[in-house]
Amino acid sequence: MTKWVLVPAAGIYVLLVGLLCAFGVVVGVSGGAAAPACGPNGSTLTVPKPWKDLNRPREEDLDYLTPEELTNATVVVSTIRTVTEGSNGGPPEVPLAPGAGRRAAEIALVVTWVESNLRNLNYGDADSLGLFQQRQEYYPVTVSTDPVRATRAFLVGLPGVKGLVHVPEWPGMEIGAAAVRVQRPAQRYEFRYHEFDEWAAAATQLLWAGVPVCPPDSVAPQPALHSAALPLARDLLPRDEYDDPHHDYPAVDLAVPTGTPAYAMVPGTVSLVDDDRCGTGIVIAAGDGGSYVYCHLSAVDVGEGASVVAGQYVGATGNTGRSTGPHLHIGIKVGETSRCPQTWLLSVYDGLAAPNPLLLPTVGCSY
Ligand SMILES: [Zn+2]
User: Fold this and answer.
1) Which of 40-44, 149-153, 200-204, 254-258 has the lowest mean pLDDT?
2) Which of 237, 226, 243 is nearest to 317 (CA)?
3) Is the omega angle on the peptide bond into residue 185 within 30 degrees of 0, that is, cis?
4) Residues in domain M23ase beta-sheet core (predicted)?
5) Integer Cα distance of 349 and 367 in angstroms
6) How confident is the model at residue 246 (pLDDT cuts 50, 70, 90)?
C-alpha cells in the first residue's frame, strides 16, 4: 500500500491513503469537447467548489470556483502566505511554526466560503460586510471591504481587535473552534465551518503554491517537448513522485487533489473508460504502439475517438472507481502487457525524449 502525507498542515490533515486501483475495460461514454487555452501565462489549475465530501463527488457536484470566487480565494491564500512567509526574499511580518500559515489559510477559506461564498459583499447581516462579513462595530469599512486588508485583519487583527494568531493554540484547533474566536458573534454558526475542512485543505494545497489558476473549460495546454508531456503540471509534484513503485502491477499513482487538470502524455486517439476499478478514465492509443491509461478522474474533457495532441487538457483528476484517496493513476501498456511508466515520466520531466513504450520494463516497478 502506498502511503502519503497529502496535506502536512500542522500535522492535522495527515491523510494516510492506501490506493487500490486497476486497469479498466474500455467502455464508451459521452464526453465534452476539447478545452481552449486560457491565460497569457498558461494558467493550469482549477479549484473545485467546496463539497462536504471531496472523496465522493456526485456528478452534480462537479463544479469549480467561478473566476470571482477563485480570485478572492487566491487573494486570501496569497495574503496569508506573504504575511507569514515574507515576499521577495524578505523576512515574514508574522513568522509562524511550519505548517501554521497553511492552516491559517484553510481556516480563512472556510470562513469566507461560509460567510460570503467567496464574494466581496457590500452588504450582509446587520452591519457585516465583505468576504469575511466583518462587523463594522469592530472593523472599519475600508478594511472589511478590501480583500487584502480584510484577510490581514482576520489573521493579525487590528488595534483592539484580536486576530487568529492571538487565539491560544489555534493551529491545533478544529476550524470552527478557531474561527468563532475571531469572527464574532459566530458561535451559532460554528457547526457550519466543519463541513468544509477537507475542501479547505485541498484548495489551500493548490493555491499556496502560487500557480496561476483559471476556470475549467479554459485550461491551457501543458508544454510538450518531443511530442510528449507530463500528465500533470510539472511544478505540481516533485520529480521523485514519478519514480514511485505501484502496488500489484506496473503503473504509478500520483497524489493530487480532486479537480487537478490532467493532460495528454502523447498524441493519439482517446477511448473512454467507465468501470468499477478504473472509475472514470481514458486510454490514449498512440502511434508509438503504447496505450496510455488514466484512471479515477472526476471529469473528462475529451470524447470517445477524439484525437489529442501531447499536453492537451483531457480532464480533471479525482477519486472515482477503486480508489481510497484522490490521485491520478497512470499506466502504459503495449497490447495487454503493463509496462513500467516511471522511466518514461522521468525522461519527460527532465525534458528528454520519451522512451518508446516497447523499451520500458515489465517488472521492477511494483511490489
Ligand atoms: Zn493505481
Assistant:
1) 40-44
2) 237
3) yes
4) 251-336
5) 24
6) very high
Q: Residue 299 belongs to what H/E stretch?
A: strand 291-300
Kindly state whether residues 256 and 353 are assigned to the same domain. yes
Count how many Cα atoms sit within 13 Å of the Cα of residue 40 in the half-sphere of its side chain: 0
Query: 114 CA to middle of ligand 1, Å?
Result: 35
Task: For residue 22, report the distance from its CA to the centre of ligand 1, in Å.
Answer: 6
Distance (angstroms) between ligand 1 centre and the Cα of 251 equals: 6
Q: How many C-beta atoms lie closer than 10 Å to residue 243's C-beta?
A: 14
Per-residue 3-state assignment (H helix, E strand, C coil) for 242-278: HHCCECCCCCEEECCCCCCEEECCCCEEEEEEEECCC
In angstroms, rounded to a whole number, what is the distance separating the alpha carbons of residues 78 and 91? 16
Query: Are 120 and 71 within one domain?
Result: yes
pTM of the entire predicted model: 0.49
49 found inside a domain: no
| Residue 149 contacts residue 140 (beta carbons within 8 Å) | no
Structurally, the chain folds into a number of domains equal to 2
Distance 321 CA to ligand 1 centre (A): 11
Judge if 33 and 74 occupy the same domain.
no
On whether both 174 and 316 belong to a single domain, the answer is: no
Domain that holds residue 97: 59-208
Taking residue 343's Cβ as centre, other Cβ atoms within 10 Å add up to 19
Task: Summarize pLDDT for 285-336 with one digit per residue, the tens.
Answer: 998 899 999 999 988 888 899 998 888 888 888 888 999 888 999 999 999 9
pLDDT-derived band of residue 37, with 50, 70 and 90 as boundaries?
A: very low
CA–centroid distance, 214 to ligand 1, in Å, is 28
Q: Provide the pLDDT confidence category of residue 67 given band limits of 50, 70 and 90.
A: low
3-state class of 316 per DSSP? strand
- CB contact at 8 A, 147 and 162: no
